[in-house]
Fold this sequence. Notes:
Blueprint: E1 7-12, H1 18-26, E2 44-50, E3 53-59, H2 72-85, E4 88-94, H3 101-113, E5 117-122, E6 142-143, H4 152-162, E7 179-184, H5 191-199, E8 217-223, E9 226-232, H6 245-259, E10 263-269, H7 276-287, E11 291-297, H8 304-317, E12 326-328, H9 337-351, H10 357-370, E13 383-390, E14 395-400, H11 408-421, E15 430-435, H12 441-463
Amino acid sequence: MASRLPVVAIVGRPNVGKSTLFNRMIKKRKAIVGDRPGVTVDRLETECVIGGEACVLVDTGGIGESQHGEMQAAIDSQVEAALDIADAVMFVVDALVGATPVDHALANKLRKAGLPVILVVNKAENANLASEFFALGIGEPQPISAEHGHGMAGLCTLVANTIPKYDIQDETSHEEPLASVTVIGRPNVGKSTLINAWLGKERMVVSPIAGTTRDAIDTDMPYHDGFIRLVDTAGQRKAGRINDVIEFVARVKAVQAFRRADVAVMVLDGAEGIVEQDMRLMHLAQEEGCALIVAVNKVDVLSEEAWKYYAERLDFRMRGLPDIPVFRIAAKYKKGVKNLLQYAVKAAQANAFEVGTGALNRWMADAEKKQYAPSDSGAVVRLKYATQISTTPPTIKIFSNRPQAIRASYKHYLEKSFRQHFKLPGVPVRIQFAKSDNPYEAKVKGKAKTANEKRHQEKKRKRS
């Protein structure tokens, strides 16, 4: 990319409508929106077009109030980080509440930052309510209603005129990440700590409070001659325990993250046992097409004897999954994290595996020779030929004389055989079956059609 996209950060007190504005501007519900303060904690960012200009829009956690307790300092640091990379700021205030002391303090902070600031007065269905905010001294207030869309056209035009211009023609190529790595796991197992260890900085809010991460946050990390996309997902609980709308939406967003990832790193807590929710998440990642790696975190607290018992239990619980690699790490001390990342990139590349038709059919013939498909009520089931129809995950279509008769157990056998033959541990394999063409079928149908036509013509001749 010849020049980077300009960055626009949305800042303000909690519950003034920053995430609602974010969703309105990108025209989709990406940020989680709730009717209580403190819903957004981490930065959430996305590329979009505002007023005809391309930019990166950044949503931030509410800043400046104490209801978050010990987390407020972490949230403040995230806003500071957003300001560090921003080219312009949308400062959002609440028309119904009026200008608060916190708003004045934030206005002073933004003036010192020296960035272009657009003062956005949200919930201003009555535009006259915006006049009070002239007292903040950071420019003309822009009255809008993010929820209902009032005033958005004018705001988008103002943002487009404020940010540096980005010429899309300057972009010589659209860069794709070498791998998209999604980190999954139950709350408070160390997912954000692992990503911070990879990045070498505190990109994610880390707190002992379970559920700190609610949104799925994408971060690009330089790697060799390209970059890796890291996605930190919200901690997952059992569906029956999700009695909070915010947490439910977070779970949905985590599933969406699985679907766009090449590989999922499942983080387990070595200090705790393995529970059913861990297994459900592993199966879900595979169902969504992610290659899967297991990282057992906090192993520094385990003795060798305790680790041996843990590993045996884990191996037993994963018996229904395909050859999942297991790594021992201590993310807090950055032990084992480098090797884990290197393997994750290799697993992502393996998930994009492509095989030639010749090699594929040689594998299929060998697999069938080792174990034939069970018969269909005495009729022989044969595999005719195979072709690869997609990658990530590798998806194979096999043509058979009796595809409807192939049992699930034989399908699982072929999937395992494919993984082992092409050395793809942890990679989900999809095998579909279709009926093979009968080369004589067209001739038989043609003869029958000709015979029917002759009989029809003969009947017409007799009637006449």
